[in-house]
Amino acid sequence: MALRRPRPLRRLPLRARVVGAFTLGALIAASMLVVITYGLSRNSMLGLRQESSEAQFFANAKQVQGSLRAESPDFAVLLESLPSLSGSRSIVRTGPDTWRSPSLVPSDLPAELVNVAENSNRAYAMRYRLDGVPQLALGLRLRPAAVSQLSETLYFEVVPLSEIEATLSSLRLILGLGGALTVLIGVAIGAWAGGRLLRPLANVSDAANSIAHGRFDTRVEHSDDPDLAVIVESFNDMADAMERRIARDARFASDVSHELRSPLQTLRSSIDYLNGHRDELSSQGATALDLLASEIDRFEQLVQDLLEISRPDAHGSVFERGLVNVTELVQHRVHASDSDITFEISPAAANAVVIGDKRGLAQVFDNLLRNAEKHGGGATLVEISRPDNSVRIAIEDSGPGVTPSERELVFERFTRGAAARKRGAGSGAGLGLALVYEHTRRHGGSVHVESRADGERGARFVVELPIAGHR
Amino acid sequence: MTTNVLVVEDDERIRTALRLALEDEGWRVSEAESCEDALEGFNPDNTDVVLVDIMLPGLDGFELCRSIRRTSHVPIIMVTARDDTHDIVAGLEAGADDYLTKPFAPKELSARIRALLRRSRTVDGNDLPRLIGDLEINPDEGVVRKNGEELHLTKTEFRLLCELSDNPGKVMSREHLLERVWGYDYFGDGRLVDVHVRRLRLKIEDDPARPRYVATARGMGYKLRA
Fold this sequence. Notes:
The structure holds two protein chains of two kinds. Chain A is of the alpha+beta class. Chain A has nine helices and twelve strands. In chain A, helix 5 (226-276) runs antiparallel to helix 6 (283-310) and helix 8 runs antiparallel to helix 9 (432-442). Chain A is rod-shaped and about 165 Å long. The two termini of chain A are 37 Å apart. Chain B is globular and about 50 Å long. Chain B contains eight helices and twelve strands. Chain B has helices at residues 12-24, 35-40, 61-71, 85-93, 106-121, 155-166, 174-182, 190-204; strands spanning 4-8, 28-32, 49-53, 76-80, 98-101, 130-132, 135-138, 143-146, 149-151, 172-173, 214-217, 221-224. In chain B, 40% of the residues lie in helices and 21% in strands. In chain B, a hairpin with a 2-residue loop joins strand 6 (130-132) and strand 7 (135-138). In chain B, the strands form three sheets. A five-stranded parallel β-sheet of chain B has the order 2-1-3-4-5, sandwiched between helices. Chain B has a four-stranded antiparallel β-sheet with strand order 6-7-8-9, covered by helices on one side. A three-stranded antiparallel β-sheet of chain B has the order 10-12-11. In chain B, helix 6 (155-166) packs across helix 7, helix 6 (155-166) crosses helix 8 (190-204) and helix 7 packs across helix 8 (190-204). At the A-B interface, helix 5 and helix 8 of A face helix 1 of B.
């Protein structure tokens, strides 16, 4: 059961969405800051400049106004003598086409300004560009002096704004860099926050993974964050419930097996006693006894396997863990199984030692050899090699092999090969390979089945165990 | 002299089946269905081996082991249905010499009994008395003295000490000791050795926490300091 809600952005991974949101936020904040800061600074600088320019302009205009009382004022000298603020220049129009200026020509003035000044009694200021340089131009129609014929006198001043322009351009650069840096920091914080946000999820996923690998006591650390605590709590509750369930199942299997041990003890003892006295039995009686004995063997093996496989983990094992020489152990088990098998042992593997319980490992090889016996006509080759940090034991037979689709299935409980679907003489309970899997897993190793290395018909079971000190 | 085996087991069918198997070996079997029953009729001079089921109604098998050990060094084999490491170590600590897990083959049981009897009667090899520190080990008499005073070792502890004293200063692996003292081949349980060494130290060492005689060679085994 999977719960899903369609969302347009769901295709993007959560982390990318978090980073994206932070980047967008930083971008918006930074651009707003840049635009506002720039606008305010620009207005304030230009305003200040305009104020001071106007003050100067009016002072100068006053002087020019004063000079109008003279018969024929020498504007060129006058204008030259006026105080100039940061390179301001002046021009006077005394008649429709009569201009006086030491430094300006009429065409330097914006036509609009001249127009407005002509028709208004008020001072007028405007910004424009002259030769690519921003300028502030001011104009005023002077009051005509009674004696003078100069009734239409206009006074203009042009103040260059290049200094302010330079300051504003460095301000733009600084603000641009600052904005870009803010966005970068936003991305970084987004990435960090995304990681932080996902860390509890990563913890949960690690824990789930660990549980999937059989460490059922794994829990996620408690979180103080109320939002995350819900996830963590429900995950841990689920893990608790699952662990209890598994423990209950295991205990049940183990209780059943223990209850079976006492009757088995009686059966085993009685049958062995009868076996010791088989010469007193009729031949039919002896056959019946053999049937009984072989069934008891199988039953005992099944109970033993069930107990072994239902043990929650290796810590509860009867058998101690110690250093086990794998090659020695395999040779011992092959020898005990009385089979005629070729050994191929790499020199490095001869002294390969693993940490484990000798009987559990012996069971691994016994079961593999028995499996080869039952389904593959007996093992033909045992190969022991030593890849990095591990020891690899391969057991080959010349049976029908295991089809690729069955290669994982054979290690499941109570699965028997297709060739042995029907329960016949000597067929096992189907726990043998599951136990092989369980034991190798408990030893930190792995087992799989593949085709024979030489390409001939048959199965090749490969066990890999970590070498002592490399687990 | 006939060997007498006392079987303490509450399941009558198992008792009967074991009696059949043990009598087949030519041994005399007496049965007890509870610890109380076993202790009542227990005569150390008339018992060579005791077989104790750990899970008994009333007093359990551990208690029986301890009671027997207070008065006797008779070899004890405990039988468990639960092969849980805790039970096994507890049984050995209580004084059992060896253990079997149900279901076991009667052949296995007789092999274990024979190994115990062998170890409780003679010590093969070099039987000359040895002097190690304050210890005087006399394999021939089956006696160990410390500063002239006799120590009360069980047969298994005694046999273990003799084995270690055969080659003082040499490290003996658990496997070697299991084979020599208990008669196990490849699959002996190393904890048998560990628990017996612990018990031996309690008896022969001045300070068992800092053993002067039996030293542990970590991961390898034990040795007797020369």
